[in-house]
Amino acid sequence: MRYIKVFLLVLVFFFVMMFFVQNQGSFSDPVVLHLDLLFLEPMESIPMPLYSLMLICFALGAIMVLLMLMWDRVTATGYLAGARRRITSLEKQLKASQESSAAEKEKLLAEKAELQASLEAAEQRAAKAEQSSLDTLE
């Protein structure tokens, strides 16, 4: 894909250069820019060749595009930083939840063991009581 991009850029550059070479006389004609606002007196620029005006406009356009791309990059970086903070916060919450869940599980296992021991003790007492009641009946 990178080679295709380079090829297309070279192709565009070639056509632009051919355009400039074939129209060099027209691009050398002087141009005077006028600005007439209602609240200011009219202004005129110095005569300059058309190609210099085109280069200035191209440079200003490139600077504007660069600033817009930088702005997008800065905002994307801000969103990314916010997302990372949120991920860290959620990971901490998950870890705390897992730890409390593990503690609950240990508590329930201990309670189960205690109840199991109580059940076995009660069964033994019931068996002894049944045995003693059988012995008394005989």
What does this structure look like?
This protein has a two-stranded antiparallel sheet. It has a two-stranded antiparallel sheet with strand order 2-3. With 138 residues, the chain is mainly α. A hairpin with a 7-residue loop joins strand 2 (34-35) and strand 3. The protein has a domain at 32-104. The protein has three helices and four strands, in the order ααββββα.
N- to C-terminal separation? 100 Å
Could you tell me the radius of gyration in angstroms?
43 Å
Low-confidence regions: none
- Global geometry: rod-shaped
List keywords for this structure.
single chain; 138 residues; two-stranded antiparallel ribbon; 6% strand; 3 helices; mainly alpha; 4 strands
Summed up, what is this model?
By secondary structure, this protein is mainly alpha-helical. It is 82% helix and 6% strand.
List the helices and strands and how they pair.
Layout: H1 2-22, H2 24-27, E1 30-31, E2 34-35, E3 43-44, E4 48-49, H3 50-137
Antiparallel strand pairs: 1-4, 2-3
